[in-house]
Write a structure and sequence with these properties.
By secondary structure, this protein is an alpha/beta fold. It is built from 9 helices and 8 strands. The C terminus is likely disordered.
C-alpha cells in the first residue's frame, strides 16, 4: 500500500465518525473543526512471563491497569495472522518499562521468555544509563539470574502482593519518562 491509499482510508473512516487508534501513540477523532489527536498518556509496560505463569501474569496486568498503566501481554495483544516475533520485539522497543516475571518455572526454562529477556537487555543498553527499563519481579521464591540481579534490583510480589504492586508501580513511574514520538519511528 502506498501512503496516499492509506491516508484516503483513514480520512474516510474519520469522516464516517470512526475513531482511529494507533497502539502506543493515541487516537485520532473527527472534531467540529477538523480532526483531533489524543496522545496515549498511560505508561506502556511489556510483561514477560513463562507460559506456566500465565495466570499470575494476567493478575499482574490487571493490577497494572488498576494503577493506570497500559500493560502489553502477548495473549491479549497479538492478533491472528500477525508476525508475532516482530510484534513482540516492537512492543518491547516502544515500552516504557519491561517487567520480567521470574518464577522457578521461568528461570531454568529455554524458550520465548528467555528470548524476550535478552532482547529487553539489548534495548536497555540503548537507553540513557540513568533511565530504568528492565524491572524484574519475583512471582514467588526463586533465584533471579546473576546477569540480571548483579545490576538490577527486583521486586517481590510475595508474600504481600499489594506491597509488591506498590513498589512495582513506583519503579514503572520512574521508568516512564516518555520518549519523543520521533524516536519511535
Amino acid at each position: 500500500m502506498n501512503g496516499d491509499l492509506i491516508t484516503g482510508i483513514l480520512q474516510r473512516a474519520l469522516e464516517a465518525g470512526q475513531s482511529i487508534e494507533i497502539e502506543g501513540l493515541g487516537v485520532f477523532q473527527r472534531a467540529s473543526s477538523g480532526y483531533t489527536f489524543s496522545p496515549e498518556s498511560a505508561a506502556h509496560v511489556f510483561v514477560a512471563y513463562a507460559v506456566e505463569d500465565l495466570a499470575s501474569a494476567r493478575r499482574l496486568c490487571g493490577a497494572l491497569r488498576a494503577q493506570g498503566y497500559a500493560p502489553w501481554i502477548d495473549k491479549e495483544k497479538l492478533l491472528a495472522g500477525q508476525n508475532w516475533p516482530r510484534a513482540i520485539e516492537r512492543a518491547i522497543e516502544v515500552s516504557d518499562a519491561f517487567v520480567a516475571c521470574f518464577s522457578p518455572r521461568s528461570t531454568g526454562k529455554r524458550g520465548q521468555f528467555q528470548s524476550e529477556l535478552r532482547y529487553a537487555l539489548e534495548c536497555a543498553r540503548r537507553r540513557p544509563l540513568e533511565q530504568e527499563f528492565l524491572i524484574p519481579v519475583r512471582l514467588e521464591e526463586c533465584a533471579v539470574p546473576r546477569h540480571v540481579s548483579d545490576q538490577t534490583q527486583y521486586v517481590d510480589l510475595f508474600p504481600d502482593w499489594d506491597k509488591g504492586i506498590r513498589r512495582l508501580a513506583r519503579a514503572i513511574r520512574k521508568a516512564a519518562r516518555r520518549r519523543p514520538l520521533m524516536e519511535l519511528a
